[in-house]
Design goal:
Elements: E1 7-13, H1 18-21, E2 40-42, E3 52-54, H2 70-78, H3 97-104, H4 108-112, H5 122-130, E4 132-134, E5 137-138, H6 145-154, H7 165-170, H8 177-183, E6 188-192, E7 213-215, H9 216-226, E8 232-236, H10 256-271, E9 279-285, E10 327-330, E11 338-340, E12 352-353, H11 356-365, H12 373-377, H13 417-430, H14 440-443, H15 448-471, H16 498-504
Family: Belongs to the bacterial phospholipase C family.
Protein name: Phosphoesterase
Pfam family, one: Phosphoesterase
């Protein structure tokens, strides 16, 4: 039977665990594998007399950024510090979150052991009640943002467990689901609020794909209204928070109410579209961000995607998953209050993880082949759309979230690690990677405002160069790379705020 789904929409938020965001939804639906308040961590895994911290539903605005590196995640999962002599095959105990957080900052242990009361996240509360939640979706690898985001569209990080500057310059070369969708005669589009992180993939920098990128605020709602959304849609949010335009990706220290507003905006645009009865909207988080989750991470029967081994000192085999993350599935073909647990295949050890997205897209659109061994193994979720007719009672609008942060974003805040990587991506796009300041000196003293402006300007230059290359008759597989050193320009004074200029800068109007 052909799938009723013709358009898959994917939104990947940042750095929150399942228990932190959705664990307390168990109070609404006992079928959800969430939390009750009995879950706990000792402040020291080796001292049974140390303070025991219980999981609470008191989460609110969170300023500090908990640890979520490879080493930090290892300690959170296994309760012991990682070392080069660490014993392989340990059993995940999920008891090291408080201990690891307290090392980062005194008192942070209490923060990572909190979750949101359902009423604090009214948009998610409504979506979980009305559609489907997956309570067994894991990040693809136990480490930070960028390697996990690579899995979402390519089922591999191409051996990356940390930020790889050389690969950033070259672009990650693996085949992506975008190309598979195109090869299958279907369409894709990327709608971005700030220059898109999907340009970490080398192939998406080709001239042939420049018209697949659309500025969200200019085009998304219009394409929804006109029924012109492509078959595979990726929505990229604001990864930087500035006055008037706060970050809405849920990465600390961004206010999750802004993330809720963005999800609401995307949902309501989709709901009002003539394509609504053909849409599956997927909301997931790239990784857990250092926040507690009680479900042990799978570490048996996980296939290495492509035979690559991570760099030293970790030499990761890509044979275990990361911490569980939130996943919500939305479609009029989904019954109210659906809960997805462990998948039934295709292998006995299969799990839902980020590679489940390309695996499911392959099934829905009847694509020819898998990308890697990982999406061949991953569980798929096309079966969640199991109704014989689409629902007519899906909410047209979602509740308005309440603001949690009582002050404007700090525009002088230093860049997060992922923001630094995005700025460095901008340097690749505009040619600054050839300068001595790349990569570390470029970002070491850069503020959030400066980073957002730099990235916006770099992407605008990249788009202009792509258009010029097309006019010059360059082959569609050509990737623009500036050969000459960019000439510094004197800053021009303007009475407009940066947020006004950023909002009005209509780059790449495709």
């Amino acid at each position: 039977m052909a799938s009723p789904i013709k358009t898959v929409v994917v939104l990947v938020q940042e750095n929150r665990s399942f228990d932190h965001m959705l664990g307390w939804m168990k109070s609404m639906n006992p079928e959800i594998d969430g939390v009750t308040g009995k879950e706990s961590n000792l402040l020291s895994t080796t001292n049974h007399h140390s303070q025991r911290l219980y999981h609470t539903n008191k989460a609110g605005f969170i300023q500090p950024d908990p640890g979520h590196s490879f080493e930090a995640t290892y300690e959170q999962i296994f309760g012991v510090e990682w070392s080069e002599s660490s014993t392989p095959g340990l059993t995940p105990t999920m008891d090291g979150f408080a201990q690891q957080a307290e090392k980062v900052q005194p008192g942070l242990s209490e923060v990572v052991m909190t979750g949101f009361d359902p009423d604090s996240l009214p948009v998610y509360k409504e979506l979980v009640s009305e559609f489907a939640v997956c309570d067994r979706w894991f990040s693809s690898i136990p480490t930070l943002t960028q390697p996990n985001r690579l899995y979402v569209h390519s089922a591999t990080s191409y051996g990356a467990t940390i930020n790889d500057t050389e690969m950033m310059i070259k672009g990650y070369p693996q085949k992506t689901i975008f190309e598979s969708v195109e090869d299958g005669g279907h369409s894709f589009g990327i709608y971005y609020q700030l220059p898109p992180s999907t340009l970490f993939y080398r192939n998406l920098r080709k001239l042939k794909y420049i018209d697949n990128f659309h500025q969200f605020d200019l085009h998304f709602k219009r394409h929804c209204k006109e029924g012109k959304l492509p078959n595979y849609v990726v929505v990229e949010q604001r990864y930087f928070g500035i006055k008037g335009l706060p970050g809405n990706d849920d990465h600390p220290s961004h206010d999750v109410s802004d993330g809720q507003k963005f999800v609401k905006e995307v949902y309501e645009a989709l709901r009002s579209s003539p394509q609504w009865n053909e849409i599956l909207f997927v909301i997931v988080y790239d990784e857990h961000g250092g926040f507690y989750d009680h479900v042990p991470t799978p570490n048996v029967g996980i296939p290495n995607p492509d035979g690559l081994i991570g760099p030293s000192p970790y030499n990761f085999q890509f044979d275990r998953l990361g911490v569980r993350v939130p996943a919500i599935l939305v479609s009029p073909w989904i019954e109210r209050g659906t809960v997805l647990h462990k998948p039934t295949g295709p292998y006995p050890t299969s799990e839902f993880e980020h590679s489940s997205i390309p695996a499911t897209v392959k099934k829905i659109f009847g694509l020819k082949s898998h990308l890697t061994k990982r999406d061949e193994w991953a569980g798929t979720f096309e079966g969640v759309a199991r109704r014989t007719t689409p629902r007519t009672d899906c909410p047209v609008t979602l509740p308005d979230p309440m603001k949690m942060r009582e002050f404007e974003p700090d525009e002088n805040e230093k860049l997060s690690e992922f923001q630094q990587e995005l700025v460095q991506l901008g340097a690749v796009l505009n040619g600054d990677h050839k300068r001595d300041m790349f990569p570390s000196k470029l970002v070491e003293n850069m503020t959030v405002t400066e980073g957002a402006k730099y990235l916006e300007d770099a992407y605008k230059k990249f788009c202009e160069d792509c258009e010029q290359a097309k006019r010059d008759g360059k082959d569609e597989s050509h990737i623009v790379c500036l050969e000459e050193e960019p000439t510094p320009e004197s800053p021009k004074k303007s009475s407009r705020s940066f947020s006004q200029k950023l909002f009005s800068c209509l780059v790449c109007e495709h």
